[in-house]
Amino acid sequence: MTKTGTTSPTTTAFYIQAALSFGLALAAVTGGIAYLPVDGWVRGFLALGMLYLVTSTFTLAKCVRDRQEETSVVSRVDQARLDKLLAEHDPFKSPAV
């Protein structure tokens, strides 16, 4: 009736692909900023903007994950209540008059 184990919605291969993709994109942008033919302060400004973007991305991903987990917990509690009601229900019991 109910699943006792939790399953991850993503596979290990997808997780590795996402991590490698993020690392490659970060390295490419960092290399692009390092070899950009501009003054040091412009490089610093772009690097600071990139750092802000990366940290904001991690924060947003954490907020989305937390909201999804919260919804999952509420759903599991509701499912447990329904399972309890169904287990206690006796269809052959005569109604009280």
What key phrases describe this protein's structure?
rod-shaped, single chain, 0% strand, mainly alpha, 97 residues
Detail the topology: elements first, then pairings.
Blueprint (H helix, E strand, L loop, with lengths): L11 H23 L5 H49 L9
Helix pairs in contact: 1-2
Sum this structure up briefly:
This protein has 97 residues and is mostly helical. The chain has helices at 12-34, 40-88.
Taken in chain order, the helices and strands follow as HH
The fraction of residues assigned to DSSP E strands is: under 5%
Content-based structural category = mainly alpha
**What is the radius of gyration?**
25 Å
Oligomeric state as shown: single chain
Structural features, described:
The protein is an all-alpha fold. The protein contains 2 helices and no strands. It has helices spanning 12-34, 40-88. Helix 1 (12-34) packs antiparallel against helix 2 (40-88). The protein is rod-shaped, with a radius of gyration of 25 Å. The two termini are 33 Å apart. The mean pLDDT is 84.
